[in-house]
Task: inverse folding
């Protein structure tokens, strides 16, 4: 089928929830993808931080092929081995004692909110139900996760949302303290606000939030849907800040491209969920868990990818800062941790993204479009970064011409 015909059918058949770029991708390997016309693209968006090992990584492909031939799906009324292998490895390498598997980041955050609320009500009573979240946050699009997403543009048309949510500025301890009341159940934060603009908190912010939660008897939920799975140079971003959450959510990179989400928590909190309180038909699907186990094992193997992520982070930020010096009228700031990198512009970045697309580079935007978002796979090397920066340089040059 020709590209034009595919584009026309998409416009005709699909509910119009996406603004898609006019290319049809057919295959991917490593850090590159190709469209139906054979054009090659360097992928520095990686499915929006999903393809942490690149496209079609051998370890994940082999694990999925093997599992598909053995068992594709089984209800959670029964036990299955892939769930166990992934759960053991996640728990061994995190703060958690227990895990719940689901299908996405939205679903993981939805479950985390339910878990926090039922635990706090059982422990303290019916009045402990309020959540505190941050402005510019993004936690998902279901009603619960949307209700704690601190961006009004995503709320329009869906009000009223979940009651009992307060928003405070990210990285503002004074505002957080003022928002706490005897009704506060939990604080939900991203360690780094990704979709909100690659906003990194002060070094001691999360440590102080942890202390506040401990002092006030409040749960701390960390949404690591985008920051987890090695994205920041450590397996989980909370490790950078010297704290542990009470509940953590994962998705995106967890399956190496296969849909899977997870809620991780401590023993006491986990016990608040009894049979019939929460479930997911496809949660813990054997194929998804096999992919997740292969992805996690690959990231953890000898520590090379995590070390490389940190090295490549320094290199790409250095190269992007050279563009900042070259185009001060366009670039305000370069910021990031690991391979979660943002380039804040003085203009909306949509046109820059389109220019890069035409030149064979896939990147995205964050915030209100003023931040270029780069989330390449953990497997990138310096020559990939050089190529990406060269393309971005050309796009920026055209923008000022």
Result:
């Amino acid at each position: 089928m020709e590209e034009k015909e595919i584009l026309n059918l998409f416009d005709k058949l699909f509910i119009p929830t996406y603004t898609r770029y006019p290319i049809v991708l057919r295959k991917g390997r490593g850090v590159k993808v190709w469209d139906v016309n054979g054009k090659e693209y360097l992928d520095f968006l990686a499915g929006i931080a999903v393809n942490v090992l690149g496209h079609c990584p051998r370890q994940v492909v082999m694990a999925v092929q093997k599992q598909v031939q053995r068992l594709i799906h089984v209800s959670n009324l029964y036990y299955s081995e892939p769930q166990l292998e992934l759960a053991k490895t996640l728990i061994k390498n995190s703060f958690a004692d227990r895990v719940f598997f689901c299908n996405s980041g939205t679903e993981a955050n939805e479950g985390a909110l339910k878990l926090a609320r039922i635990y706090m009500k059982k422990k303290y009573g019916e009045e402990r139900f309020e959540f505190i979240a941050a402005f510019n946050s993004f936690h998902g699009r279901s009603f619960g996760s949307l209700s704690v997403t601190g961006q009004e543009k995503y709320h329009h048309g869906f009000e009223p949302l979940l009651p009992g949510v307060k928003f405070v500025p990210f990285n503002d301890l004074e505002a957080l303290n003022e928002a706490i009341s005897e009704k506060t159940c939990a604080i939900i934060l991203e360690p780094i606000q990704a979709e909100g603009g690659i906003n990194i908190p002060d070094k001691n912010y999360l440590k102080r939030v942890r202390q506040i939660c401990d002092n006030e008897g409040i749960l701390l939920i960390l949404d690591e849907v985008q920051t987890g799975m090695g994205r920041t140079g450590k397996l989980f971003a909370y490790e950078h800040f010297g704290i542990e959450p009470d509940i953590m959510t994962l998705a995106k990179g967890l399956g190496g491209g296969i849909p899977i989400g997870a809620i991780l928590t401590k023993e006491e909190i986990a016990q608040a969920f009894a049979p019939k309180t929460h479930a997911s038909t496809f949660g813990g699907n054997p194929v998804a868990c096999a992919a997740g186990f292969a992805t996690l094992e690959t990231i953890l193997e000898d520590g090379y990818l995590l070390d490389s992520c940190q090295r490549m982070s320094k290199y790409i930020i250095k190269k992007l800062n050279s563009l900042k010096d070259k185009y001060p009228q366009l670039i305000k700031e370069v910021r990031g941790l690991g391979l979660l990198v943002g380039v804040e512009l003085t203009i909306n970045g949509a046109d820059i993204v389109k220019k890069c697309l035409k030149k064979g580079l896939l990147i995205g935007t964050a915030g209100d479009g003023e931040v270029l978002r780069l989330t390449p796979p953990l497997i990138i090397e310096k020559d990939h970064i050089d190529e990406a920066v060269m393309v971005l340089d050309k796009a920026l040059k055209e923008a000022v011409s």
Remarks:
- The chain has a mean pLDDT of 97.
- The CA atoms of residues 110 and 144 lie 6 Å apart.
